[in-house]
Amino acid sequence: xxxxxxxxxxxxxxxxxxxxxxxxxxxxxxxxxxxxxxxxxxxxxxxxxxxxxxxxxxxxxxxxxxxxxxxxxxxxxxxxxxxxxxxxxxxxxxxxxxxxxxxxxxxxxxxxxxxxxxxxxxxxxxxxxxxxxxxxxxxxxxxxxxxxxxxxxxxxxxxxxxxxxxxxxxxxxxxxxxxxxxxxxxxxxxxxxxxxxxxxxxxxxxxxxxxxxxxxxxxxxxxxxxxxxxxxxxxxxxxxxxxxxxxxxxxxxxxxxxxxxxxxxxxxxxxxxxxxxxxxxxxxxxxxxxxxxxx
Length: 295
Fold this sequence. Notes:
Elements: H1 15-24, H2 28-45, H3 47-50, H4 81-117, H5 119-133, H6 137-148, H7 152-179, H8 182-189, H9 194-202, H10 207-230, H11 242-248, H12 261-294
Helix pairs in contact: 2-4, 2-12, 4-5, 4-7, 4-9, 4-10, 5-7, 6-7, 7-10, 10-11, 10-12, 11-12
């Protein structure tokens, strides 16, 4: 049977078809970014299984050169550098992911509520966010952590609270454009509540830009954690984390030993991988928005 324009049937794309199309259209740079992220995710999930030694085990000499037993040599105490990087990935990435998720929950709820409710709620939340953003992030974080301590819970809370201000501004801007659409007005006329409008009407139409922003915020979070650890106020020993490893082995550079370069390279590679994938998601989102506008 020959299919013509008269008897052709349009099939609504399923979520699985959309996912397959997303990966099929992915350019090489985005595939490289995806591969980097997946490798790091594998390391995070299976760190105890793939690490050659335990996280704190002393196995070689101080700043020992690479060998068959210690592929990246030893650190400032004689621990295996490869093992420390593997466990550092699990610590740094896990904390950064939790902090980013929490910041998005806070920022999206507050941003959507401000855009939909407007009036006094929007004014109060917007002025509060602007006041927090007026203070340099690193300085504010250092002050809070110096007062509350360097506990992991405090670290996650501080990063999430400070990062949620950026998420608030983006989610509010997106929600203000969506809130004037006819389907949102229809939901309000039906008597739907604020939570329904936010989760059923606004959020599904704001997913792509928020996903792209999640990648950027995640990259910022783990770079911020590494910065705090490098200053001695982040994740504390004996837990391994990349920023702390750079600080602990920084003196090795004087003697021509590349020990601090390994965790620094791990930070850089993951940041590049995340940004490569985020660039593709943003480009795809912009193309979809342009096509919808033209249509």
